[in-house]
Amino acid sequence: MGEAPALRRVVIIDDHGIFRAGLKAEMAGRVEVVGEGHDVETAIAVVRREHPEVVLLDVHLPGGTGGGGAEVVRACRDLPEVKFLAISVSDQAADVVSVIRAGARGYVTKTISTADLGDAVQAVATGDAVFSPRLAGFVLDAFGTGAVGDVRDEELDRLSAREVEVMRLIARGYTYREIAGELFISIKTVETHVSKVLRKLQLSSRHELTRWAEQRRIV
């Protein structure tokens, strides 16, 4: 039998104390809760102090400049080791897209089961994106078609020079083998670059990546 996954260091941010307490009890033995916050200010402070692996973040929070959970994510962008997983009662497209645009790695609703939430925390901690099924479509629509505003320049800035090269060739229809030959790298390295590009841009496929590049006129 394999070893059980390591307990991830988690901070819980929610303006309802009873929810934080219930979530902490439910997740006992699955994660190590190292801090809590109830508004934008306390959230930012505890995340910067504890440097957790994952922050379970409510979308609607009091305080700050009114940006809620998205404001917390933006304020902690200089902590790349910290991953944010939004957990909210809201399943509205605007809420989902705003927090993902800010940099969160996933979004689930509070109807999620304890087991599924535990799995989501593990996935986000390792860099994967996690969404409740209905919500994934909002993200694909927003980042794939531009239906919820233009993609920001800072997203392109996340890519290295080589990742931009690979992204352009993918958008032009090159196969992995053709890209490998063009850039004098292995096919495995191409696959790694493509995976990183999709993750950084929060896209899900070559098709979505091609549309993203075309919209930016960088093909």
The CATH topology label of the largest domain is Rossmann fold
Cα distance spanning the termini: 48 Å
Given the helix and strand composition, which structural class is it? alpha/beta
User: For the CA atoms, what is the radius of gyration?
Assistant: 18 Å
Identify the overall geometry: elongated
Which range best describes the helical content: under 10%, 10-25%, 25-40%, 40-55%, 55-70% or over 70%? 40-55%
- What is the name of the CATH superfamily of the largest domain? Response regulator
Count of structural domains: 2
Q: What is the makeup of the main sheet?
A: 6 strands, parallel
- What is the oligomer described by this structure? single chain
CATH C-level category of the largest domain: Alpha Beta
